[in-house]
């Protein structure tokens, strides 16, 4: 019998993953917007989030959240971090016991500082839970370009079964049991991507970007290890791979926010023009809080936080980074 999968979230990445797995499973996508659902069902597109992209005809969509999850054998969640808990609470009485839940969300919950899998474990205990993450720009993947990702779960048996659901000829899926490291890599890199974008917006060169990316990787790795992630995870697809893609691509929402900040625009004006969430904006507050909690020096993250939340300019942020005392490359800072 063919697996029944439900994908929650009608944004670019949720739609892309739903289209991918619809070749292996009976897949229904849930979205709030009735117009989006109708477009997916009739035209097999989502022009708002994936302009020019074609979704598989097999993919179905619905606005009825309880019925979408009620008979699913797999739940995939592509909800922004700010809404993640609320949606999990709405579906907790409709999901069948022991159904695996895989998060696509690369963010941290404000207030609790929870990763998305921690929210699932709290709201929906006893469900196998994991994360799909990596350098995955939705518009490239929906266009058929090759990409690789990591599926991380603590239960190796579930990993083996679910890997084949996500993998396709042009979408290679690796597995990991380091849920903490994979999830943190995806969340923390968004803040560094804003910094890289700020440099681009100010007209900085490739030397500057290389410095931001490599020192940013050092920052997120130190914090990630302190929080329980494995060092090798941050050197792989979930860490360095995702960071490179997000810091370099014009398709990256967080990089785009940084570029506009680098041009001198206000964060509220930038966000008001976007129809998708740039997770790094809210995550920057959580990251500096975690850095303080774990006593990890993160000058780039602090600089981004200053611009996003404290009305500092991008120039002031980069000056603060350059004033940070340097020493051995193995040392913090």
Topology summary:
Layout lengths: L3 E5 L3 H10 L4 E5 L3 H9 L17 E3 L2 H6 L3 E4 L3 H11 L9 E3 L12 H8 L5 E5 L4 H5 L4 E7 L2 H11 L4 E6 L2 H23 L4 H21 L4 H4 L2 H12 L4 H10 L4 H6 L6 H15 L5 H11 L4 H10 L10
Parallel strand pairs: 1-2, 1-4, 2-3, 4-5, 5-6, 7-8
Antiparallel strand pairs: 6-7
Query: Can you name the CATH architecture of the largest domain?
Result: 3-Layer(aba) Sandwich
In CATH, what is the homologous superfamily of the largest domain?
NAD(P)-binding Rossmann-like Domain
Radius of gyration: 19 Å
N-to-C SSE string, H for helix and E for strand:
EHEHEHEHEHEHEHEHHHHHHHHH
Order of strands across the biggest sheet? Answer: 3-2-1-4-5-6-7-8
**CATH C-level of the largest domain:** Alpha Beta
Largest sheet: 8 strands, mixed
Number of helices: 16
Mean pLDDT: 93
Q: What proportion strand?
A: 5-15%
The percent range for helix content is 40-55%
CATH topology name of the largest domain, in short, is Rossmann fold
Low-confidence stretches: none
Gross geometry: globular
Q: What's the total count of β strands? A: 8
- Total tally of structural domains: 2
Distance between the termini: 54 Å
Structural category is: alpha/beta
